[in-house]
Design a protein that fits this description.
alpha/beta, Four Helix Bundle (Hemerythrin (Met), subunit A), Rossmann fold, seven-stranded mixed sheet, 10 strands, 44% helix, 12% strand, globular, binds ribulose-1,5-diphosphate
Length: 316
């Protein structure tokens, strides 16, 4: 019998690949929910078939975008709770595991926000890049504490996620100045903090985030503007403990330039890396739900949470 991937899993995978579902935490939550639907709707009649279906669904979800480690971490969390002798027991364990994962994700973001908010003072100006729910959670918590903040928001070419950030900051009552990416250097002197999210954090404390984060961090360091990375612990990449590097997603050329415009220029190469790596020396603090850490010490937390043995249960 060929194990079936549920249409909802297929739809979630398509939406992650096309970025209708995007951002590391949102992707993680969608993946856990998709695995739950796969389990709930499975009509496998023996546990081995049930597990085979789950593994296929997990591989389909993993096959979408390679950089955000929150995706494999979310699947790993659910698989670690897979238990029982019957299909019904195994189904229940996945449903509970996925529900627990989503609850923990929400709580972690709130806890992280409360910690990050302590760094922000009344009247401060933040400068943002891309759109990060973890970073915005810090702003939201600061607003709830009654602090007034201003924001300079980088547009974030080519997909302009800065527009999402601008809209959400406005909803929080934060005045926003939107700038093109190249203007960041000029506006850094007006900023008290650069605050960004992360897709993955390596064992050496390097931060993998939206392309442009690295040059922003380097310039911010030159101006002595602190750079804060807001990242729940599901952004910690346990595979980097054993020397694996994080794959940087290369996206379609057409996100950068339309075909007609490209043809009018002549023969050119277009490249569109979605993420870059910011070395730990440019980062002041990584704010997690477990506290804030200098990037160089994040490895201790990573070992505590994941151990040295990294399992990939979907490969069996
Ligand atoms: C999103 C991005 C975000 C991180 C963190 O990239 O780089 O900064 O994913 O987001 P993309 P969050 O738009 O290509 O997915 O804090 O919401 O997890």
């Amino acid at each position: 019998m060929v194990s079936q991937i549920h249409p909802d899993v297929e739809a979630t995978a398509t939406e992650i690949a096309s970025m209708e579902i995007r951002g590391a935490a949102t992707i993680a939550e969608a993946a856990a929910r998709a695995l739950r639907v796969q389990a709930e709707e499975s009509d496998a009649d023996d546990p081995r078939e049930f597990d085979r279906e789950l593994r296929r669904a997990a591989r389909r979800l993993l096959d979408t975008r390679p950089t955000a480690v929150s995706l494999p971490n979310s699947l790993r969390y659910v698989f670690q709770r897979l238990a029982g002798d019957t299909v019904e027991e195994r189904r229940a364990s996945v449903v509970d595991g996925a529900r627990e994962f989503c609850e923990r994700l929400d709580n972690a973001q709130d806890d992280l926000g409360a910690i990050g908010a302590n760094r922000l003072r009344d009247g401060d100006t933040i400068l943002t890049h891309c759109h990060s729910t973890d970073a915005l959670s810090c702003v939201e918590a600061a607003r709830e504490q009654g602090k007034s903040l201003n924001a300079i928001v980088k547009e974030t070419r080519p997909r302009k996620q800065g527009h999402i950030t601008a809209r959400q900051l406005r909803e929080m009552g934060v005045p926003v100045t939107l700038i093109v990416d190249g203007a960041a250097g000029r506006y850094l002197d007006d900023a008290d903090h650069v605050i960004v999210g992360a897709d993955s954090i390596a064992a050496d404390g390097a931060v993998i985030n939206k392309i442009g984060t690295r040059s922003l961090a380097v310039t911010a360091r030159e101006r002595d503007t602190p750079i804060v990375v807001a990242a729940q612990t599901i952004k910690l990449d346990p595979a980097t403990l054993s020397g694996h590097t994080v794959e940087i997603e290369m996206r379609a050329e057409k996100e950068v330039i339309g075909e007609d415009e490209r043809d009018s220029i002549g023969e050119i190469t277009v490249e569109n890396p979605a993420f870059d790596v910011t070395p730990p020396r440019y980062v002041d603090a990584i704010v997690t739900e477990r506290g804030q850490f200098p990037p160089e010490s994040i490895v201790t937390l990573m070992r505590e949470l994941f151990g040295e043995q990294i399992r990939t249960p979907w490969e069996n």
